[in-house]
């Protein structure tokens, strides 16, 4: 009885937090498909491939400095808003905005500081400290000092609080790691920019659970997790064509990425050799009238960085 009351209280808390973040993502931090809206940006500022390389560079920086990877998701939103709000007009300014966005995100979200002169050195002499300071001022003014955007990882953190107490701690860890991996891929790829992070997070949760074997996460547990997560969002979003689009884009992006399989195998060893992910069989998860069918596991012949654009 106590467990039920505790889980019900958690659900209500998560619903309130998610509702607040959904309002933020739809207003203050809303991003659009700016490259389609203004095709000249692809030529003069950045295309999807260049943006992906920049975001991957950000992950490389935080890993090298042993910083929180969550900061990159925030920095990516800052960077997209820089472009969308006409703060950059060239590829060089795009790089400057990326460096500034990452520096700002680290200052806000990490307990370890990276000195500004150290960050500038990463620009290989293209920028001076004053350039970063001025770009930061422009960015903060454009954001009206609202610098706490809800990312897909923010939503996933809330959804994962709804995992039933019957799920083992190791399975919770596995689910957390797999959802993080998939979410970070969506951060890198421009095609996810136009979608609300809340919806990307839900589709990520579905995709992650499909890749974990039934012996680790029982079908009824999957259904319970999805039902609880869905209860935090508007039902029209859960069953929308947009949600299916995001789901299929995630599937396509994972087909040529072997890092996920490597991650699952590593966790499998940590779990004592249990079968942690789905091999040949297909599993279908249903929410209302929407069916989510997983693709085959990624193969070994592709580079870990080889994702479908």
Automatic annotation (TrEMBL):
Gene3D superfamilies: Cyclin-like (1.10.472.10). Transmembrane segments: none annotated. Residues 150-280 form the Cyclin C-terminal domain. Keywords: Cyclin. The keyword Iron does not apply. The keyword Transmembrane does not apply. This is Cyclin C-terminal domain-containing protein.
């Amino acid at each position: 009885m106590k467990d039920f009351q505790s889980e019900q209280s958690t659900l209500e808390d998560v619903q309130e937090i998610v509702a607040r973040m959904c309002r933020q993502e739809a207003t203050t931090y809303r991003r659009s498909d700016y490259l389609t809206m203004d095709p000249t940006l692809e030529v003069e500022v950045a295309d999807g491939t260049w943006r992906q390389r920049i975001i991957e560079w950000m992950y490389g920086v935080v890993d090298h400095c042993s910083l929180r990877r969550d900061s990159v998701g925030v920095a990516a939103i800052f960077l997209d808003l820089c472009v969308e709000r006409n703060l950059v007009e060239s590829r060089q300014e795009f790089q400057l905005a990326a460096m500034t966005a990452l520096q700002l995100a680290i200052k806000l979200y990490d307990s370890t500081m990276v000195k500004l002169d150290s960050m500038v050195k990463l620009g290989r002499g293209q920028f001076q400290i004053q350039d970063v300071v001025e770009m930061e001022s422009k960015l903060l003014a454009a954001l009206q000092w609202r610098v706490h955007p809800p990312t897909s990882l923010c939503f996933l953190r809330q959804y994962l609080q709804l995992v039933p107490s019957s799920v083992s701690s190791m399975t919770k860890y596995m689910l957390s790691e797999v959802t993080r991996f998939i979410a970070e891929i969506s951060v890198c790829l421009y095609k996810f920019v136009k979608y609300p992070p809340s919806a990307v997070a839900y589709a990520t949760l579905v995709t992650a659970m499909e890749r974990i074997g039934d012996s680790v996460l029982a079908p009824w547990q999957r259904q319970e997790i999805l039902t609880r997560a869905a209860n935090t969002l508007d039902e029209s979003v859960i069953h929308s064509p947009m949600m299916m689009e995001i789901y299929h884009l995630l599937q396509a992006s994972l087909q040529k990425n072997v890092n996920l399989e490597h991650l699952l195998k590593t966790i499998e060893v940590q779990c004592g050799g249990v079968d942690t992910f789905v091999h040949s069989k297909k599993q279908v998860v249903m929410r209302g009238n929407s069916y989510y069918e997983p693709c085959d596991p990624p193969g070994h012949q592709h580079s870990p960085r080889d994702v479908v654009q």
